Amino acid sequence: MSAHDLHGLPLTTSSADTAGLFNDAVLGFLKYRADAGRRAGKLVGADPGFAFGHTLRGYFLQVPFHAGHLAAAREELEKARSLSAGISRREQAHIEALATWVAGDVDATLDIWEQILAEYPLDVLAFRLHHFNAFWRGRPDRMARQADAAVRNWGHELPAYASLLGCHCFAHEELGDYAMAEKSGREAIRLAPDDLWAAHGVAHVLEMQGRHDEGIDWLDTLEPHWEGGNNLMHHLWWHRGLYHYERGEFDKVLDLYDRRFRNLASPLVQSQPDFTTDIQNAVSMLFRLERMGIDAGSRWNELADRAEARIGDFLSPFTQPHWMMALAAAGRWDAAERMIEALRTAPEQPEGGVGPLMRTCALPIAQAIVARAKGDPARACDLMRPALAVMNGLGGSHAQQDVLEQLFLDCAVKARRKDDVASLIQRVRSRHPVPPEKRMGYRDALALLN
Predict the structure, then answer these.
(1) Same domain, 89 and 212
(2) 282: in domain
(3) What residues pair up with 10 in beta bridges, in sequence order?
(4) Is residue 132 located within the same domain as residue 166?
(5) 3 forms bridges with which residues in the sheet?
(6) What whole-number distance in Å separates Cα of residue 80 and Cα of residue 91?
């Protein structure tokens, strides 16, 4: 008796129950369900001899970018290897992908998933994990290549077709093809209204095009379909906060902060209080609000506590500046110095690892954040300027990277550095379809150039 995954690819098990649990866990991952990890745990508990189940659980342990999960991910890797005799070449390749990911060589991991997809174009797990990691390496080109190939190779009848369209949407949004992105994203939602990633992709299109009223309506309409979703719901509420921010409705932004995307009473926040994207959402919004003269009060202290506990955890490059923003805003200068030293001495990793990125990009930005907070915006400009050209490598979308651009702009304005202001404004003007004159956080800076 043979067993197959969601798209009909064979699994090395004769158990229909095992295959069903595997597919249920993968579906949980594709749909951003909060219980996806528990589904993977149920799978390995029910069939501890299924190698691919251990690989899947190892993958899921890597997804949160938390160094505290590395030991458990390595254990799952070793279990998968010990059970690998007689499994398929595809499943062997997934084990090697997990091995390179755990070792920190993300570029090699992307290469392995691309090799899997070249031979097995319908491999939904390789496709979705590749999309996820290419995004956090700042590589929308790689995301789009795989999404375009999948659109050619996948049929509408496949269970993950809507998920593919959501990925196609987001990849092309990041490349600036907003018409194609919106078409794919809206079609994905038509097929699967509960697809959080497709809702997210269209939310990005509406943000980038300045369609804030439409964005609020879009998320309002889809929110009833999000029950059981994971932390991506918080990010969608953050996007709604960005729409209100651009409309100058700062009270609504703070309400969304406290009741939605940083609601400390939420079971999701309580279970993962330092989840990287949640921290990014919270810090970047408070920074924007404070630039507009809105006092965040004690909210910074809670974030600084999370940041201080994660000093030396380099698995999420893009979160590093956010942790430092929280430490600086809360005046945690000793912790800030420890973080700078940790970034300066980040361990060497494989060529595709993040160690060099910590020193060449995250470190100068972190130092700039401290210099700005201590009243030296000119030094902050000098520290951060070389990082501007490479900071996309930290990962994050255009909407997320915007906070780093605003950081540099704020320093340039305070230092009265007209050349730096002009350079940053030109950079933003070339990347964002809404002109700086119509964007919160930018229009006031233009006065320095007149």
Answers:
(1) no
(2) no
(3) 4
(4) no
(5) 11
(6) 10
Q: Give 288: exposed, middle or buried? Use CB within 10 Å, 0-12, 13-18, 19+.
A: buried
**Helix 161-174 and helix 196-208, axial crossing angle in degrees, nearest 10:** 20
pLDDT above 90: residue 274? yes
118 and 67 in a single domain? The answer is yes
> Could you tell me if residue 36 is inside a domain?
yes
Summarize pLDDT for 363-419 with one digit per residue, the tens. Answer: 999 999 999 999 999 999 999 999 999 999 999 999 999 999 999 999 999 999 999
Q: Is residue 207 part of a domain?
A: yes
- Provide CB contacts within 8 A for 12, sequence distance 6+: 50, 51, 52, 86, 87, 88, 91
Residue 98 belongs to domain spanning: 1-137
CATH code of 72's domain: 1.25.40
Answer with the one of 174, 208, 223 that is the final residue of a domain. 223
Kindly report the number of other CB atoms within 10 A of residue 14's CB atom.
10
Integer Cα distance of 230 and 83 in angstroms: 31
Given a contact cutoff of 8 angstroms between Cβ atoms, the answer to whether 161 and 138 are in contact is no
90 φ/ψ angles, rounded to the nearest 5 degrees = -65, -45
User: What tokens does 59 get?
Assistant: 């993958």
Buried b / exposed e over 224-245, threshold 16 CB at 10 Å, is eebeebbbbbbbbbbbbbbbbb
Q: Residue 381: which of 348, 356, 352, 418 has the closest Cα?
A: 418
How many whole angstroms separate alpha carbon 134 and alpha carbon 396?
10
Q: Helix (H, G, I), strand (E, B), or coil: what is residue 360? A: helix
* Assigned domain for 10 exists: yes
Residue 3 dihedral angles phi and psi, to the nearest 5°: -125, 150
The answer to pTM > 0.85 is: yes
Query: In the chain, how many H helices and how many E strands?
Result: 24, 2
Total domains present in the chain = 2
Going by pLDDT thresholds of 50, 70 and 90, the confidence category of residue 1 is very low
* H or E segment and range at residue 107: helix 106-119
**Residues counted in the chain:** 450
Q: Do both 192 and 128 map to the same domain? A: no
Four-point Cα dihedral 56, 59, 63, 65, nearest 10 = 150
